[in-house]
Structure formats: C-alpha cells, structure tokens
Amino acid sequence: MTLFPHWQPTCKSIKVLRDWSSYNRGAASSVNVSIDSRTSEAAASEARAIPQFDFETVHFHSGARDSSGFVANVGGSVSALDWLPSATDRGNFLAVGTHPHDEPTHRVGVPMAGKGAVQIWCTPNVDTAANRFDEQMFSPSSVSMEMALLNARGGVWDVRWCPSALASDSSASGASALPRLGLLALALGDGTVQVLAVPDPRALKQALAAGTLVHEGDAAEGSTTQALGVLLEPVFTGRVGGVNDKTALPWTLAWDPRPPHNRLMAACQDGSVAVWLLDKPRNDCAELAEAYPVHCFMADSLPLRQAQWAPATLGNSSFNVVVTCGHAGNIKFWDLRDAHQPLFHYPITRGYFLSMRWCPHSKALFLTCDDHKVRVIHLMGMHGLLPLRLSRDHSPGSHSAVAPRPILRHCLLIAHQISGPHCMLAPPVTSPARVVQ
C-alpha cells in the first residue's frame, strides 16, 4: 500500500529548465580540498581540485579493514542532508540542501529571500559487512547529481524524506503520472514548510526523451552538468504563524516515525514547536492554501536546533511524546496532549546542542554539542519515559551531526564510528558561510 497515493508527480506539475544557473547563486566552479588518504602502507595528504557537482573517490585503512568513500563538491555551504530510507536498484539517493554561496552569513530568525536548490545525488550501494562502497559499482559514473529541485523561497534550512519505503511508488497511474522516488519535506528560508512528490530521475529523463515532458528556456552557456533543473508544485505547504510573523521560522523537520507518517514536526528559530497533520481535510480552494499547525507551543526561550518524535520502539505510550534541544542547552521531553510543562528537563551547564538523533533499534538518544562532545541518554524504563541514566561523554573531535548512516558534508565525507555500525558521527567542514545570532 502506497502512502498518500493522491500525491503523485505528473508532467503537468513539473517544469524542467534548461538553464537553472540563477538558482545556483555564486557557487565556485571548483574547490581545492586536502584529503588524507591512509592505506595499509602509508598515510599521505594531497590537495585535489574538485569541479562543481563532481566527486573524488577516497580510500582509508583503519586497523585490519579498508574503507572507501567519496568527496563531493556541492557548490555551497551545506545546511541540510538526508538519505532516502530505501535503496533502489541504482543505489542510494541523498538530498543535499545548500545556502547561497554568495551570502557570508545566514542570520537566525530573519527570513531569507531569493532562489535556491536542493540537490538529489545518487551513490552506489554500501557493502555493510566490509564497511565500504561496492567497489564494482564505484566507477566515475557511479556517483552523480541527478537533479536539482528549484525554489524561489530563500534557500533551504532542512530536508527530510518520509521515513517509510511505502513513500516510494514505482507505478504510475494516469497518462501524465510519473513514478515517485519519495516524499521530501523542506524547511524553506521564507518560513514555509513544503512537501514535494519527487519524481524518479530516470523516469523524468525518459519522459523528456519521449516528448511527454519538454525543457523550458534556453541552455546555459558553458554548462557541463547533466543534472536536471526541476520546478515542482508542492503537494503540501504549511506555515507556523501569520504572514507578518518574522521569527517563527522552521529550522529542522521530523516526520512521525509511525505509520501512516501523517504528522510533520518543525523546530523553530524562536523556540517554538509546530506539528502539522498532513492528511487533515482541507477547505475549498485548498490545494494552494497554506496549512497551519494542529499543535504549536513554546518549548524554549532560544532557538531550537532539533525536535524529534519518540521512536515506536518505546511502545504505544510514546505516541504523543517529542524531545527538543537547542541553543538554551536544554533537553526537554514533551507530551503534545499537555505541552504547558515538559515531562522531563535536563540542562547542560555550558554550551548548547547542535543536533539529536535516536539510535536505531535501541532506546538511546545521541546529542551533539558545541563543546565537541556527544552526549548519550539511555531510557532505562518506560514509566514516564524519564531518562534515568546519562552515559559518559564521548569526545572524538569537532562535529555537528549524529545520524544512523554515513553523513556527507560540503566537500568532505568522514564518519567516526562511536557506538556500533548504525551510529555515525560526521565532523563539519569550514565553509564561507556561518550561522550567527
């Protein structure tokens, strides 16, 4: 059974631009990256020039095992990325959101304007037993940027695929319908949240070749990228506050991990949390109207960096429980049915939180902080969902995100294994853009 079967990409809702360079503002044509290549014989550091939207393969040796990966130039400061939850016959798809390269700062709480793009990359499948990409598939054409999802809403703060494999639909009902790669939620710079029904790039190219879909505009002079520039009509658009509310800007998003995945949550830059019901009945002329949250409450006095749903592994009692963290240095557990007071509050004495993820198939919550530490909370019991034990801090170095799969950062891919093969730590890369408050 396909999730949200009425959210299907069609040729009528898609525009493919020949020249989308205006959506790729100020991006450098190439980036010089110093890469430490460690083999079983020696360790060496070399500088490589990586063209825009291109990549370099790297090989590492750690102990008795060899690893491989890739370094990609995505053309700007990375603000968001997320893996499509299910691999395809072609490999894994990765959504990468970038801020405009020509803007030196991105101020918290201030809406952004202008054009931007979310890149969709395809990478080879991973040999999990050998902790490396499939070497037979790792050819110069095995990693590629397939398409750019264009927008005119000030760039993107976060991207999140619907976590269910049922969001992908290889069938297409209707003459103009296209197979759906997945459902992608975006937190955009102007304060809106959108959900896109992303078409399969291969089906998109087949439609262009067959003439059922045509390019618009003229080709860009001197352009070498084969990626498609695509404008999609959103299947859902939400906003936290009124049009004049300039502070309630969504920063990060989280889909409900439980079927039918019909709740979408945003952590906002004013300290609030918003939850939308995606299958809520809409009024007349609803398709283009902006939806407002069914839940909205203040979780902290400073910007929130992350809000996460309690995982389904915690049982039915956690259906309405969410966890927040952010610049105030507080971890708070909330019950959406009564969000006047948190269920549990754990502050840190110094610094603030950057990101938060649940470790798959466990009851551990991993949080990264600006003091270069990873904090781990274990839920020892289900009564009240209170974290009864805080583990020792892990300090492998500077980092900004925790995720259950290897993380790609702007021009660098490094993952430090900290707690089993499913929990990876990715350090950031210095970029010309920085977040200021």
Automatic annotation (TrEMBL):
Q: Which SMART domains match?
A: WD40
Q: Where primarily located?
A: nucleus
* Subcellular localization, as worded in the UniProt entry: Nucleus
**InterPro entries for this protein:** GTF3C_component, WD40/YVTN_repeat-like_dom_sf, WD40_repeat_dom_sf, WD40_rpt
What are the protein's UniProt keywords? Nucleus, Transcription
A GO cellular component entry from the record:
nucleus
A single GO BP term for this record reads: transcription by RNA polymerase III
User: What protein is this chain from?
Assistant: Uncharacterized protein
From the broadest rank down, the organism's phylogenetic lineage runs:
Eukaryota, Viridiplantae, Chlorophyta, Pyramimonadophyceae, Pyramimonadales
